[in-house]
Amino acid sequence: MMRSLYSGISGLKNHQTRMDVIGNNIANVNTTGYKTSRTIFQDIFSQSVRGGMANSPINGGTNPVQIGLGIKLSSIDVMHTPAPYARTDNPFDMMVEGDGYFIVDTPNGYLYTRAGNFKLDDQGFLTTSDGYYVMGYTGTLNYVPGIPAQDAAPDPNNPDVMLPATPAVPPSAELLDPPGIDYSGLTRIRLRVPNPAYADPTVTPDPAVDGPAYVDLGGFAVGDDGSVSVMINNEKVTIGKVALAVFSNPGGLEKAGGSMYRATSSSGDAIQTLPLENNAGRVMGGGLEMSNVDLATEFTDMIVTQRGFQANSRVITVSDTMLEELVNLKR
Known about the structure:
Blueprint: H1 2-27, E1 37-43, E2 47-50, E3 65-67, E4 71-78, E5 85-87, E6 94-97, E7 101-106, E8 109-113, E9 119-120, E10 126-127, E11 133-138, E12 141-144, E13 153-155, E14 158-163, E15 172-175, E16 187-188, E17 192-194, H2 196-199, H3 207-210, E18 214-216, E19 221-222, E20 227-232, E21 235-242, E22 244-246, E23 254-257, E24 260-262, E25 271-273, E26 282-285, E27 287-289, H4 295-327
Antiparallel strand pairs: 1-4, 2-3, 5-27, 6-26, 7-8, 7-11, 7-22, 8-24, 9-10, 11-16, 11-21, 12-15, 13-14, 17-18, 19-20, 20-21, 22-25, 23-24
């Protein structure tokens, strides 16, 4: 009876744990990039009443007789299976279709996420909603500001001479040192570049002609290969690539909050790579990865868990009744 009481108590405790996991999954059914969790149980070491015996010339063999002592939690697994794509038409939203994770620079080191709801901060850096920098590979952009058209005008040094009119020169940009992108290390992705007119100390800046000290680049787009491009003078210019990370065992990643994961000894070190390489998958712009929670499965598990909790409660009640009868035998 005491063994059945212990089994019932352990069942109540672990079914409550399972209900907690189910509740968390349901709560995150609309969380971008969320990966569902599952609980796995196993039985506790059994008490042996009689050991098994091999057969003999006289008798046949017998099986061991054991009484289980209840249930315990084996693991809570995070299921890193793909989730549906939700189109948003926001150019800064991204989704990884594959095994890769976006790499994010935080005060506590690199973290990894499947939630690609990114934005630009006031300095032109691509960041998460919490302000952490999205990492990638970038190059040095040589931006040449445009020059507005000049009408014919007298030469200030010789009023009798008219300077001819000049057409407008549109801005241009190119990556220095082709192919231009440095793959030797991760850097922050920035859509703002310094104006070379301000980089030369011998040049006196004229904002009317040279423009601002920094230039914000528009027309952002991301390609399947993670290429980050902008539009300059109606031309598409690639200024960098988004980096991804893959792991030998994604199930070993540790949740760090904010839809982030942290590498552990179980997950293995992060392998920094480019999209479309090392099974990282491709990057899809203008949309987000949704949660992979299956509500039908969660509600089914909830019913089964509730019934299991109810049955274990009944075991405790019946065991208590039997113990009460045992105490009353002497009366």
